[in-house]
């Protein structure tokens, strides 16, 4: 996938992601794709064997993919978590906070614009999957 923006140091996962239904029918798949409305919690028993979980965004206004990412990270998933589909540059920072570390937008995003979007805010207000320290914690120890 040429349009993938990656923010990981490990090697690129080349195996195509299978659908959730196909994943449960295969014993050796290491990459799976969740579509809108599919429950990420179904993958929790398999997180240790997955190298890539791709979460589809068919519509930029659908926030279920953010929740899915957060659920997976909170349950210990450490592999690549990719947002794919209707992904916009102004969403990248929020997606990263939820746990996404790679993006495959339908329409190309300039890498410099993506980096600017991801580094725009020095401080955050709440805890999230990215382990950044909230500003209130810095203030009140």
Automatic annotation (TrEMBL):
Protein name: Uncharacterized protein DUF934
InterPro entries in alphabetical order: UCP030820
Superkingdom of the organism of origin: Bacteria
The organism of origin for this protein: Parasphingopyxis lamellibrachiae
């Amino acid at each position: 996938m040429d349009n993938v923006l990656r923010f990981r140091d490990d090697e690129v996962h080349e195996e195509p992601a299978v659908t959730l239904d196909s994943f449960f029918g295969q014993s050796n798949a290491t990459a799976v794709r969740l579509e809108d409305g599919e429950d990420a919690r179904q993958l929790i028993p398999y997180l240790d064997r997955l190298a890539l979980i791709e979460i589809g965004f068919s519509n930029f206004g659908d926030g279920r993919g953010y929740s899915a990412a957060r659920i997976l990270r909170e349950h210990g998933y450490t592999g690549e978590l990719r947002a794919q589909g209707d992904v916009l540059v102004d969403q990248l920072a929020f997606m990263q906070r939820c746990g996404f570390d790679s993006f495959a937008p339908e329409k190309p995003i300039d890498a410099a614009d993506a980096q600017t979007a991801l580094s725009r805010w020095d401080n955050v207000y709440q805890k999230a999957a990215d382990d950044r320290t909230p500003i209130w914690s810095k203030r009140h120890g």
